[in-house]
Design a protein that fits this description.
Elements (H helix, E strand, L loop, with lengths): L5 E2 L12 H14 L9 E7 L4 H17 L5 E6 L10 E2 L4 E4 L2 E4 L2 H8 L6 E2 L14 H8 L3 E6 L4 H10 L9 E6 L4 E2 L13 H20 L3 H11 L5 H13 L4 E9 H4 L8 E11 L2
Parallel strand pairs: 1-5, 2-9, 3-8, 3-9, 4-7
Antiparallel strand pairs: 2-12, 4-8, 5-6, 10-12, 11-12
Helix pairs in contact: 1-2, 2-4, 5-8, 6-7, 7-8
Amino acid sequence: MTGMLLRKPFRAGSFYPRTASEVEKALDEMAKAAPKPAPGISRAAAAIAPHAGWTFSGPTAYTAARTLLTYSEPRTIVVFGAVHNWSVRLPTITEADAWLTPLGPLPVDTELRDTLLGAGLPVEADEHAHNGEHSIEVLLPMVQALSGAVKVLPIAMPPVRESIEVGRALAGAGTEEGDVVVLASTDLTHYGADYYGWAPMGAGPEALKWVREENDAAVIQAMLDMDEERVMERAREDRSACGAGAAAAAIAFAKGTGATAGRLLDYTTSYDVRPDGEPSDFVGYAAVVLGTTI
């Protein structure tokens, strides 16, 4: 990797394990715990996965990645990331030539990056958008373990219309059908007065029920209906997705490749994973696949 720009991991040892052996053990446990790939899918174009620490959302994220790669054979996986740094105003591609994980380096598809940057799209290349950001990083060891030598292209996707435009354009970026798939990164409702400063239903079982059956359900349904505009609207009005730009861009991409439907593969919350007292502060997580014959 001499002379190449290498993006090193920021969150290994906190959001997920630090060493290769620990990562492999955790992924083996996820493979056993995660729901199996559902039948009835002929081709997967994109998937939507959470990006919290593996303790909380790992099996759900693994389900999304495994299903996507069970029903596709891509050359490149474009990973659309949520943006937690609000200075990132446009879709922003990594400048790195490879991203390092505990399992080793993952090569970046620099050719596809150059194609997008040269297409007159509202997209830029800036590594600062990815420094310290975990929303793509936590998914890459899963991608690596499931796909082998595939290339990746990390793109930070803020919740703006330009993200949808870039997702749509990626579907026609001159690649052969199936060469490129998208994995999008978003958690759902961040609920609670203590940690998140937002608890319209108070605390307790009714608050958890409302998040599961109403707030998260509405944005998930928009994903399943493949309505990228409604995903952005629901997230903006209901605070139901921190990576709405990534999810909406994935839908726009999938529709551009001929995908016709979405399927919910898994849903949980951090409270379900680690209940402690009455529900008060928790986050929702969903795994969704977008494709054909679903």
